[in-house]
Design goal:
The protein is α+β, with helices and mostly antiparallel strands and 320 residues long. The protein is built from three helices and 14 strands. The strands form four sheets. Strands 1, 2, 3, 4, 7, 8, 9 and 10 form an eight-stranded mixed sheet that branches. The longest helix is centred in the last third of the chain and has 16 residues, at 255-270.
């Protein structure tokens, strides 16, 4: 589950269902050394949007995510990402092996996620920031998430000069996000108000204890010298085999990969710096909907997308 999309009333800790890994465990400030030996000062906030390898039971009546996002500023939390930009980092020299073809497929997905074909992402445009706390439907008010007219893939980096840690810590993953921001030239808070960094780990690695920790992926933000950075810890989910991290019928090795990344992407966009902007027992926008998957056909291929919560429809949906 991620801490993605929750009831919009008050700020509180989010309960995770069916996971052995802790939710919103706050990591202390500290240093992390990247693959080149550079030390980064990072302060991860917590693990949000923890999607379970074995999805929880369907959402119960009364656990309804509601938008409560607050006014956007460089210093505030509880913001959305009005103009999403995705930077993908394939972390470590271990990416010389990619038995499932995850790297090209992930690039294809983000390249194609825009325009009229992206009916799944259209659900996100109902959410906004800059409205009163407790607002469930933004209407024409606030700053809405825009539906991209062109590719949201802003950059790809194979950081393969050395192996990534076999079992990386949360701080090391945060440091890789900080290193990525520097690599892409996003060295101030301004560009990082819409940038999200997907830290994709290679086959055979165990980022933050995956898979024994029970999660498919999670998202977070970290303080850094480039400002607050939104990032996702995306393990090599094909290592679980077909059917892991998805409920879709006749799954392929990559279906769980995209079900999970769509869960995390939607939660990052709607809860950019978790968990101030959402609250409730159900988690974020994807957490209520882990039992719903569908296939989305884009110009770049067909992908498994997880259901996400729609305040407008008052239910989990895969198109808007």
């Amino acid at each position: 589950m991620s801490l993605r999309g929750i009831s919009l009333a008050a700020v509180c800790a989010l309960a995770l269902i069916g996971l052995s890994a802790p939710a919103q465990a706050t990591a202390p400030a500290g240093q992390a050394v990247d693959l080149a030996g550079t030390t980064y000062q990072v302060q991860p906030h917590g693990r949000a949007g923890l999607k379970s390898i074995h999805p929880a039971a369907p959402a119960r009546a009364g656990r309804v995510p509601k938008n409560v996002l607050t006014v956007r500023s460089a210093a505030s939390e509880g913001v959305v990402s009005p103009n999403p930009k995705v930077y993908v980092v394939f972390w470590g020299s271990q990416w010389s092996a990619d038995p499932a073809g995850a790297a090209p497929a992930l690039q294809d997905f983000f390249t194609g996620l825009h325009g009229s074909a992206d009916t799944w992402g259209a659900v996100l445009t109902q959410y906004c920031e800059g409205v009163a706390k407790g607002t469930a439907n933004c209407g024409a008010s606030g700053i809405h998430i825009s539906h991209p007219a062109s590719s949201i893939l802003a950059g790809v980096w194979f950081d393969n000069t050395a192996p990534a840690p076999a079992t990386s810590t949360q701080a090391q993953i945060a440091a890789e996000a900080a290193r990525a921001a520097a690599h892409f030239g996003n060295t101030t808070q301004a560009p990082n108000l819409d940038a999200q960094y997907v830290i994709a780990s290679a086959t055979g690695t165990h980022p933050d204890g995956f898979p024994n920790s029970g999660f498919c992926a999670w998202h977070d933000f970290t303080a850094s010298t480039s400002g607050n950075l939104a990032y996702t810890n995306l393990p090599y989910l094909p290592d679980l085999g077909a059917g892991g991290c998805t409920t879709i019928s006749n799954p392929t090795l990559l279906d769980g990969y995209f079900s999970t990344e769509t869960h995390e992407y939607a939660e990052v966009v709607t809860d950019f710096w978790p968990s101030i902007g959402w609250n409730g027992s159900g988690g974020e926008i994807g957490d209520e909907c882990q039992q719903l998957d569908a296939r989305l056909t884009l110009s770049t291929g067909t992908f498994d997308v997880q259901g996400i919560w729609s305040n407008t429809a008052n239910r989990c949906v895969t198109s808007g």
